[in-house]
Request: fold
Amino acid sequence: MIDPLAPPVWWTLGGLVLLLAVASAVTAALRWRFPARDWRELSDRIRSWWVLFGVFAGAIALSRTASLVFLGLMSFLALKEFFSLIPTRRVDRKVLLWAYLAIPVQYYWIATDWYQMFLIFVPVYLFLLIPAIMVIAGETRGFLRAASSLHWGVMICVFLLGHAAQLRVVPDAGNPVAGAAGWLLFLVITTELNDVFQFLWGKSVGRTRAAPGLSPRKTVEGALGGIATTVLVAWALAQVLTPFSTAEALMAGALIGFAGFFGDLTISALKRDLGIKDSGSLIPGHGGVLDRLDSLAFTAPLFFHFTIFLHY
Amino acid sequence: MLQRLVFALVLRPLIAIAVGLNVRHRERLPVAGPAIIVANHNSHVDTLGLMTLFRLRDLPRVRPAAAADHFLERPGLLSFIARHIMRIVPLDRRAREKGEDPFGPVLEALDDGAIVILYPEGTRGEPERLGRFRKGIWHLAQARPAVPITPVFLAGFGKVLPRGSFVPVPFFCDVFVGPAIGPDGRPAGRDAFIAWLEEAVRTLPGDRFRETWE
Reply:
């Protein structure tokens, strides 16, 4: 077993500190150069990045268990936010409790590396359990909508996001460079940077709206520029954290770029449907937990399968 | 001391993780008494959530008004919590029959410099529905016209723990704090004042509150 604190992991975390320090410095410089403009959202954003990075890096460095607890907490916060956003029926209070309970259960399968159970628990057993509890309550009005929307939330927040945790428990031998922690770091860093790149490209050269019905801020230029930059970063990061060949690294970058784009848009569609702008206000400058994790929910399972297929 | 300890070690972390509050204009909450906070009431968690928003050193001054018969009649855990952790101002709902002023204890608390939390709906009522305000707040405002009134709108707590349920379910909740209403510009006349205050609470969330409870 490779120590999770293998040197590549430390170099990467150190690199991120440097990156955030540069971001803070640029923000400070912008504030100083253009004091009249309102930089609050940007500085909130960067400050939140520091906090998110600090907690995530701490969990990664501490142990495998700490990483799983951190990701489980993210699943919980995301699910709580989802349940708070969608219309729910009072009669389904019990179902919601069971859905929350699915988080420790699912992460237990992950921690014990019971892969088969990890794969079927939410898609099959919870899919059966949710309507079963609802049937006992006996309220038929809004039954289909409640059953499907509750399960949709658990799929996104627990099952899909859980793939990031599952990536942390695969045998370290598959990644002789940096172990399982290397896969997880690679996934999270490229996914989050992809969000940032798409935002920056869209803001600077964005003209053509990619999905006018969904989000005014998503542009074709932003998406393409973001994905291209992500591919480059994935290539560079793969040298440090993974045994990927050049072709594999480029493909992983493209996969994460595209999947992140659609994850982001999916939560935008949900918010548009519900008539809200941010999914919450837990993370200053970013919005809610779902606003931050939407792309990861989509990139995690795809990158997980990509990695398993090629290296296990 | 016990109150601050319980809030710092148990209630604040519990509310932060299991519930989670989105607070708009926290800075508008009064820090010095005497002051009155007027809020809508959906759940017992309302008071807990609201009280976690105060600094620990201001906490002993915060006193929620609550029905004495509901919380204090039988000795036990509930009454202990009501007395020593929540530190309620007991309202005797049968005071008028006995010829006493039901708001006497509230006036005393205000004169002691307390920040009193009042729920003019008088009851938790239907979860997540704003009921009509009762008249008591008018008498208080008449008796202590200089005391500022801060309107607060709470949403979501009725989903966490509605009346009649015993197991809380995690949801994010919203707290909208309005600007304090000073002594000037309050409508004269009881009904006008009550309707005006009700409106001040009801309109706080603007378009940021959606009905998500069916």
